[in-house]
UniProtKB/TrEMBL annotation:
Compartments, record wording: Cell membrane
Lineage, opening ranks: Bacteria, Bacillati, Bacillota, Bacilli, Bacillales
Matches recorded under InterPro entries: DoxX (IPR032808), DoxX-like_oxidoreductase (IPR051907)
Protein name as it appears in the record: DoxX family protein
Listed Pfam families: DoxX (PF07681)
Similarity comment text for this entry: Belongs to the DoxX family.
Entry keywords, A to Z: Cell membrane, Membrane, Transmembrane, Transmembrane helix
Top-level taxon of origin: Bacteria
Topological relation to the membrane, as annotated: Multi-pass membrane protein
C-alpha cells in the first residue's frame, strides 16, 4: 500500500516537472525554441512536438489518465535529449537529471 502511494507521488511530481517545462517553452516563445532546436541540428517542427508531449504528457501523469501511454512519449523525449544534447556534457551537469526522468517515465510506462 505504501508503495502505491509513493508511486502516485512520483508520477504526479514527474508530471508537474514535464508540464512546467512545456509551459516554459511557451513563455520563452516557440520561435526561440525552434531556433535552439535548429542550432542543435534538429528539425524545428520537433520543438512543437516536444512542447505538446510535455504539456499533454505532463497533465496525463498528474491526473493519472493515459499516464502509461504518455510516459512512453516523455521517455522518448528524455532519451532524445540525452543522446542529442546532454551526453557530451557528461553525467554531472549533463544528463543526470534527464536520466532519472527517463527511468521514472519507463517505470510509469511499465506499471500495470
Amino acid at each position: 500500500m505504501a508503495y502505491e502511494k509513493a508511486f502516485v507521488l512520483l508520477r504526479i511530481g514527474t508530471g508537474i516537472l514535464f508540464f512546467i517545462h512545456g509551459i516554459a517553452k511557451l513563455q520563452k516563445g516557440m520561435a526561440a525554441v525552434v531556433t535552439t532546436f535548429g542550432d542543435l541540428g534538429l528539425p524545428g517542427w520537433l520543438a512543437y512536438l516536444v512542447m505538446i508531449v510535455e504539456l499533454i504528457g505532463g497533465l496525463a501523469l498528474i491526473i493519472g489518465i493515459g499516464a502509461r501511454y504518455a510516459a512512453w512519449g516523455l521517455a522518448a523525449i528524455m532519451a532524445g535529449a540525452i543522446v542529442t544534447v546532454k551526453w557530451a556534457k557528461g553525467f554531472v551537469g549533463g544528463y543526470e537529471f534527464n536520466l532519472i526522468l527517463l527511468l521514472v517515465t519507463i517505470c510509469v510506462g511499465l506499471k500495470r
